[in-house]
Write a structure and sequence with these properties.
TAT_signal, 155 residues, 19% helix, signal, 2 domains, 8 strands
Length: 155
Amino acid sequence: MSNRIRFTRRSMILAAALLAGITGVLVSSATAGTAAAPPCGLSTLKGTYLFAGDGWSISGTGAVPLAFAGSERFDGAGNLKGVSSTNFNGTPSSHNAFTGTYTVASDCSGTFTIGGTLHFDMYLDPNGDSFVYVQTDAGTVSATTEHRATRTSVG
């Protein structure tokens, strides 16, 4: 019986060592050749992005619903322009043009401002195909995701 226990222990130790070796090889080969994503910058956002979202406008103790959808073009140099349709507490407004500016840090976080009055914090996918944002103005609650539709910023 004692030989059998030793064999089982040896087998377990050998199996554990073998598994650790295989795992190390798999991890090494999975990460070999994988380059770190380049840091983000203004040019990470370039092209036309589509968005749709909803939220609330809060005044005192009251809150009214809002919804929005549209597209915006980022030029890769800190400027944006777009068009959106909104519905504020049941009152629609269609095809409103807007302009703004944006910043992007190397860690893929950033900000953008629309018309000098609407402010947002954003977090980008390092390849620039999408980003999420939250509005940072007091009295408004909204957040959404934007997805790149084209890689060029025509217009």
